[in-house]
Amino acid sequence: MEKTAYRAVIKYLHLKGMTPSEIQEDMRGRESVEDDPRPRTPPTANIKDNLDLALGMMMQDRRISYHQIAERMGISIERAVNIVTKELGFSKVSAWWVPR
């Protein structure tokens, strides 16, 4: 195929809305339509020890924040929120006002 023919095909596929990586895969002749397997780390934040640790911290200090829980447990804030709200079933009833 000539260079201009490749450019025409790339331009056509780009105008159809394909991303450069999709165009490259299409040009190479990829036939699989399924996603490639992705490396995934198993969830370790929801293990029983972490749930018990978070529950213990919350029972000891009812005004503890997500940031403090995450920092003490060594996990992300999002995981701390998930553990407290979804896994343990807690919700904040009265919020305190703090100056900005």
The CATH architecture of the largest domain is: Orthogonal Bundle
The CATH topology of the largest domain corresponds to Arc Repressor Mutant, subunit A
CATH class of the largest domain: Mainly Alpha
| Structural domain tally | 2
Major β-sheet annotation: none
Stretches where pLDDT falls below 50 for ≥5 residues? none
Strand content: under 5%
Helical content band: 40-55%
N-to-C terminal Cα separation, in Å?
64 Å
**How many beta-strand segments?**
0
Gross morphology? rod-shaped
Query: What's the pLDDT, averaged over the residues?
Result: 81
Structural class label: mainly alpha
- What is the H-and-E element order? HHHHH
Oligomer: single chain
* Number of helical stretches of at least 4 residues: 5
Rg, nearest Å? 25 Å
Describe the structure.
The protein is mostly helical. It folds into two domains: 1-31, no CATH class; 44-99, Arc Repressor Mutant, subunit A (Orthogonal Bundle). 54% of the residues lie in helices and 0% in strands. Helix 4 (66-73) crosses helix 5. The longest helix has 13 residues, at 3-15. The mean pLDDT is 81.
